[in-house]
Write a structure and sequence with these properties.
about 325 residues, alpha/beta, about 40% helix, globular, two-stranded parallel ribbon, binds uridine-diphosphate-N-acetylglucosamine, seven-stranded parallel beta sheet, Rossmann fold
Length: about 325
């Protein structure tokens, strides 16, 4: 496979939201397979530090998804686009639906225009399990009618429809990956809108009491970031007839409620205290669990890292950051 290192045979990937925790994990994986990375990020929730040891090896451009000329520049000469840029928060979208819509929907349409005109081979989109909303049936299958609750979920679902539309109308190959609660190293724990695992792990490592919003019986199909990375690489690689214009769940295929999750984290972090309970969050989904049969059949996806192993790796990473901060 020496031939892969011939520059002319290297593929170029554009990763939007490259400074986020999923985008930066994708960048590392693309570099590791010997391909080139161009990345854009407006650094609103992403952080340059997430790219620290690879920044010199990627073509990083600080740009917003609403900057259409910047997207046209970014798409030039690109083979694959991995579109992760978003304001990734249900509660934030409830507070400010216009901002959510601009970043999560308008940004997507801008990108699709640029990708179409640059004739990129394929666009893989970070869609969201929130599209299913509170449909009572579990597990959630891609053929189920979506039932989004929050403005975030609506924007993510509308973006999926745009992806499919650009395939049908213009032949641009698009693949939607419905992520189920991705977690892992570099996920930002510091905002009130942070994902629950990043928050709980860092709080418990510092000996602070976490708060479960609601009764803790809500459950999620929490998915370690390396599984999502693998799904993206597969989505670029498999033949178009299997994936183009389609939607796939990306998850672990098991759900844990927050009370159980807290107990597992207690064991893994050594946190001795109890959990606090607060009011349920507006727009929250009660249960989430993925059916993975379509992803397995057409993408060849199976989750490699289970929930507990993912938690172990994530906790190790946050611990290593504490050591760096103390040094
Ligand atoms: C939703 C999507 C997910 C998407 C994410 C983007 C669903 C099922 N999932 O995640 O795919 O990536 O949006 O933000 O729609 N919680 C606490 N205490 C806290 C923080 C949160 O108890 O301090 C609870 C929340 O109320 C919720 C659960 O933890 O019930 C998970 O919350 P969060 O991590 O924010 O993700 P979702 O909103 O489920």
């Amino acid at each position: 496979m020496l031939i892969r290192y011939d520059e002319t045979l290297m593929a170029t990937y554009l990763i939007t939201g490259v400074a986020g925790f999923i985008g930066s994990a994708l960048a590392r994986a693309v570099l590791a397979q010997g391909d080139q990375v161009r990345g854009i990020d407006n650094l609103s929730t992403g952080r340059r530090e997430n790219l620290v040891e690879i920044l010199a090896r990627i073509d990083f451009q600080e740009a917003d998804m609403l900057d259409l000329p910047a997207l046209y520049d970014a798409c030039r000469g690109v083979d694959y686009v991995l579109h992760q840029a978003a304001i990734p928060s249900v509660p934030k979208s409830v507070l400010d639906p216009l901002a959510s819509n601009r970043a999560n929907l308008d940004g997507t349409v801008n990108l699709l225009m640029a990708a179409r005109d640059a004739k990129v081979k394929r666009v893989v989109y970070a869609a969201s399990s929130s599209a299913y909303g509170d449909t009572p049936t579990l597990p959630k299958h891609e053929d189920m009618a979506p039932n989004p609750i929050s403005p975030y979920a609506v924007a993510k679902l509308a973006s999926e429809h745009y992806m499919i539309s650009f395939y049908r109308c213009y032949g641009l190959q698009t693949v939607c990956l419905r992520y189920f609660n991705i977690f892992g190293p570099r996920q930002d724990p510091g905002s009130p809108y942070s994902g629950v695992l990043a928050k709980f792990i860092t709080q418990m490592l510092k000996g602070e009491q976490p708060t479960i919003l609601g009764d803790g019986k809500q459950s999620r199909d929490f998915t370690y970031v390396d599984n999502a990375v693998e799904a993206n690489l597969l989505a670029c690689r498999v033949p178009a007839m299997e994936v183009a214009g389609r939607v796939f769940n990306v998850a672990t295929g098991r759900r844990f409620d927050l009370n159980e999750t807290f107990q597992i984290l207690k064991k893994l972090t050594g946190y001795p205290g109890k959990v606090n309970y607060g009011p349920e969050r507006a727009g929250d989904v009660k249960h989430s669990l993925a059916d993975l049969s379509r992803a397995t059949r057409h993408l060849g996806y199976t989750p490699k890292v289970d929930f507990e192993e993912g938690l172990r790796r994530t906790i190790d990473w946050y611990r290593s950051q504490e050591r760096v901060a103390r040094a």
